[in-house]
Amino acid sequence: MDGLPPTSYNDTRVRIGVVFMIFIGVLMAAAYALLAVRSDLPGLFAGVPVALLGVVCVWVAGRRWNRGPGQRGGLWMLLGSVLVIGSLWAAFMTSDALS
Description:
The chain has 99 residues and is mostly helical. Helices cover 78% and strands 0% of the residues.
């Protein structure tokens, strides 16, 4: 079996997940940039490209899900979600290492 079958419920669930992860990724990237500038912690800029790369991976996952049968983006969604959430680690660990 190749992932979830294409039903309207699964399509809706995937679309909600994609929109949510893209929103969170963009919000986190903006927050890192704002915090880096305002609090003089340049290490927080390390989280910006990681979060944006995660957003791109999640977007690719959404496009692959809607493309057609056999083209599912589960691995892309997993990778993008890990990058978006992992950007928190990248930002604060780099900031801590530089301070």
